[in-house]
Write a structure and sequence with these properties.
The complex is a heterodimer of chains A (147) and B (190). Chain A is α+β, with helices and mostly antiparallel strands and 147 residues long. Chain A has 1 helix and 8 strands; from the N terminus they run H-E-E-E-E-E-E-E-E. In chain A, a hairpin with a 7-residue loop joins strand 2 and strand 3. With 190 residues, chain B is of the alpha+beta class. Helices cover 16% and strands 59% of the residues of chain B. Chain B starts with a helix and ends with a strand. The chains are: A alpha+beta (147), B alpha+beta (190). At the A-B interface, helix 1, strand 5 and strand 6 of A face helix 1, strand 6 and strand 8 of B.
């Protein structure tokens, strides 16, 4: 294929690009009208609670790890609970659609290491052809000792 | 995604005439006619990956020099250690974003290969999960952000005059971890 000018080539590429975009857009519209029916285990009521799972490190100097769970960043001082890991309460059942931060305290030799992480618990809504179903995106906190 | 693949296919299919164009008056002429470059980049090292993009505009075709605007993001948090007192540390999950402007020069090797070197000045900002700049037990968390230099260099290989891949080295002051990075990029020139 030979183009006699830059303009001709640019117009050709632009036209083909537009055709490609239009084709991709049509495919998406077709996909949207092709929803599947809801699964049998569909949860139709928005959930109110989810789980916050806390991963941690145990070693000779830290056989138990004290933690604090806050709503929002820890400096907001909205403390929800204090616990010591390992704990039968982990994963923690907490209200949904909130961001949580966890502060864990370790010792390493003569040093104190404060490990902080955060995550949120969210509700997800999925549209099906006959109804909407809800699921929970649970939170995962990693306060393992990395250094 | 489909239309991007379609576009790449079209560009590849019609690229022969452009190789001829590059042969006609050499790399500086080609740089003048096609001053726009954009690339997606991945600097990485030691379980720390960033994703980024750079736009380059050729300001001096004869010298193959261009100005660049870049942005880099760390999609996965990197655990870092901040010293707050002689025996007191914070371990935090850090997300770092860097925005930079700079200059870059290319050295033409042949129609498919060139060598590039560039320098930029960037603003590096961080976000820690679970905290901003909180105080815990009387110890302040201080964000390690601010101005940072970015230096990069390497080789570029053109699959077509429009599409090329780069590999090389990138350094940026990461403040909390080592800043030396291996660098890969894929981009286009129009």
């Amino acid at each position: 294929m030979i183009f006699t000018s830059r303009t001709g080539f640019a117009v050709f590429v632009a036209l083909l690009t537009l055709l490609g975009i239009a084709w991709a857009g049509c495919q998406e519209l077709l996909d949207e009208n092709d929803l599947e029916p809801a699964p049998p285990d569909c949860i139709e009521v928005p959930p109110t609670e989810g789980y916050l799972s806390v991963r941690y490190t145990l070693n000779a100097q830290n056989p138990h790890v004290p933690i604090e769970i806050y709503r929002g960043d820890f400096e907001n001082n909205d403390l929800i609970l204090r616990d010591t890991l390992p704990s039968s309460h982990n994963p923690y059942r907490l209200p949904i659609d909130e961001y949580y931060s966890v502060v864990a305290k370790y010792l390493r030799g003569q040093d104190t290491i404060i490990v902080i992480d955060g995550d949120d618990i969210e509700a997800d809504e999925t549209e099906y052809s006959d109804k909407s179903c809800w699921s929970v995106d649970n939170g995962t906190i990693d306060v393992k000792l990395k250094f | 995604m489909r239309w991007i693949l379609l576009l790449i296919f079209i560009i590849t299919a019609v690229s022969d005439c452009l190789w001829a164009q590059l042969d006609r008056d050499g790399a500086p002429g080609y740089e003048k006619r096609h001053p726009h470059m954009a690339m997606f980049e991945t600097p990485f090292f030691n379980n720390d990956v960033a994703l980024g993009a750079t736009y380059r505009y050729t300001v001096h075709p004869g010298q193959m020099i261009g100005v660049t605007v870049s942005a880099y993001f760390r999609p996965f948090g990197k655990s870092i250690l901040l010293k707050s007192a002689p025996h007191y540390y914070f371990q935090l999950k850090e997300y770092r974003h860097t925005f930079a402007v700079g200059l870059e020069k290319k050295f033409w090797v042949n129609n498919r290969l060139d060598v590039f070197v560039g320098g930029a000045l960037g603003l590096s900002v961080v976000d820690y999960r679970g905290t901003g700049e909180g105080v815990y037990e009387g110890h302040q968390i201080v964000k390690k952000d601010g101005l940072t230099p970015i230096i990069k260099g390497g080789i570029a290989y053109k699959f077509t005059p429009f599409v090329y891949m780069r590999a090389g080295y990138l350094y940026t002051d990461m403040k909390t971890v080592d800043g030396h990075r291996i660098y890969f990029a894929i981009g286009g020139q129009l």
